[in-house]
From TrEMBL:
Enzyme Commission designation: 3.6.1.-
One matching Pfam family: RAI1
Signal peptide: none
Function description: Decapping enzyme for NAD-capped RNAs: specifically hydrolyzes the nicotinamide adenine dinucleotide (NAD) cap from a subset of RNAs by removing the entire NAD moiety from the 5'-end of an NAD-capped RNA.
Protein name: Decapping nuclease
Similarity-based family: Belongs to the DXO/Dom3Z family.
Lineage summary: Eukaryota, Metazoa, Ecdysozoa, Arthropoda, Hexapoda
Enzyme class: hydrolase
Molecular function terms from GO: metal ion binding; mRNA 5'-diphosphatase activity; nuclease activity; nucleotide binding; RNA binding
Cofactor(s) the protein requires to work: a divalent metal cation
């Protein structure tokens, strides 16, 4: 529990000691295999079940200029609606995911017991930020990570802190690379001259578990590898059999040796792992945004091999943080109160601040709050 107060109003929860949290000798445990529950198409503020999956088409003509179309690029809007996809799924689904059975599903490889399971609703980005922390401890503003938690009806709701981003041209390279690699039809080449709207996205709602915690979260996906058109995206049994792929581009300026040792590659692997994605298409660009060499397709599982970072260390740290959040918020039951958790790389500690009652940080919608209350009463 809190050891002292800092001048910014935060209370220190835990000091992080590198040798302890990266200890590879501790018993390893893993996430239950992630399962897709549904897929949504998001266009600005609209969330729809009418989804048309993009199809991966490996580029054949080089160089690829990631600057093309920048003058027409529509940047993503910063909205306080990041948990809306998960809220929509919970509200529209007949199964009561907020009150899971006390027993762990058979075959999960995890201990079955009668203790109540804990439900976490969040975004993949929150999980990724937490899981990469053991290897991003050094003092740097880029290593500082903050997430907000509201506990209501026994359910933990976790959301990334709202930030204001000053976009640059380099921030468009990822979406341009995606456009060059995906088509609306497996039998057609990508349409690369259309304006890119970064507010048109596809998300999966995914469920997994780690020990006593059930995690339901949204994750943005890029597309699939398939030579046939997928007409029915409502059949989750078929959706879970698809081969998903994500695209990543990396500035090779200053990189020596294997580029997969770059610190970004840990995040690539975490994003793929959490989104049931088996492949990563990598484009190596120069500092001017030009990909001059053929893209490389990497199996996500191969990215994790022979690295300084270890998957089970990331997963163990996630579990430790979830336990810490649970312990800190034991007495909390309010749909508006927000606990702001932060990893401070300068002091190398996890700290928190309480925002009681309804504030600008409150993020649960009124409709969801009503659904949550109904589910808890059943």
């Amino acid at each position: 529990m809190p050891s002292n107060n800092s001048r910014d109003g935060f209370k220190v929860l835990m000091k992080l000691r590198p040798n302890e949290i990266t200890d590879e000798k501790q018993p390893a445990f893993y996430l239950q295999r992630p399962k897709i529950l549904t897929i949504y198409s998001c266009r600005h503020d609209s969330i729809s079940s009418d989804v048309h999956l993009p199809y991966f088409k490996k580029p054949t003509s080089y160089p690829l200029d990631l600057n093309e179309g920048f003058d027409q690029f529509i940047f993503r809007q910063n909205k306080k609606s990041r948990l809306r996809k998960v809220e929509k799924f919970i509200m529209e689904n007949e199964e009561n995911h907020l009150q899971p059975d006390a027993h762990t599903p058979s075959g999960s490889g995890q201990t079955q017991n009668n203790s109540k399971r804990k439900v976490i609703l969040c975004q993949r980005g929150v999980l990724t930020d937490i899981m990469q922390t053991p290897y991003h401890l050094n003092a740097s503003t880029s290593n500082n990570k903050t997430f907000c938690v509201t506990k209501y009806c026994g359910v933990f709701h976790m959301q990334e802190q709202e930030t204001i981003t000053n976009f640059t041209q380099k921030d468009t390279y990822h979406q341009k690379f995606m456009q060059l690699c995906f088509s609306d039809d497996p039998n057609r080449e990508p349409e690369t001259d259309k304006p890119i709207d970064d507010n048109n996205l596809i998300f999966c709602i995914i469920k997994t578990s780690v020990k006593e915690f059930d995690l339901i979260y949204s994750a943005e996906i890029a597309g699939i590898v398939s030579d046939r058109k997928i007409e029915n995206t409502h059949n989750m049994e078929e959706m879970n059999k698809l081969r998903f792929i994500l695209t990543k581009q990396l500035n090779t300026n200053g990189i020596m040796g294997d580029y997969l040792n770059h610190r970004k590659c840990l995040r690539w692997w975490l994003q793929a792992y959490l989104a049931k994605t088996s492949d990563v298409c990598v484009g190596l660009r120069d500092q001017n945004g030009i990909v001059r060499t053929p893209v490389q397709i990497k199996r996500a599982e191969d990215i994790a091999k022979n690295r300084k970072w270890k998957p089970h260390v990331c997963i163990r740290f996630l579990h430790s943080v979830l336990k810490l959040v649970e312990k800190t918020m034991t007495q909390v039951d309010c749909p508006h109160t927000v606990y702001e958790f932060m990893y401070d790389s300068i002091t190398r500690c996890i700290k928190f601040k309480v925002h009681a009652g309804k504030t600008d940080l409150s993020f649960l919608s009124d409709d969801y709050i009503r659904k949550c209350k109904q589910s808890a009463s059943h």
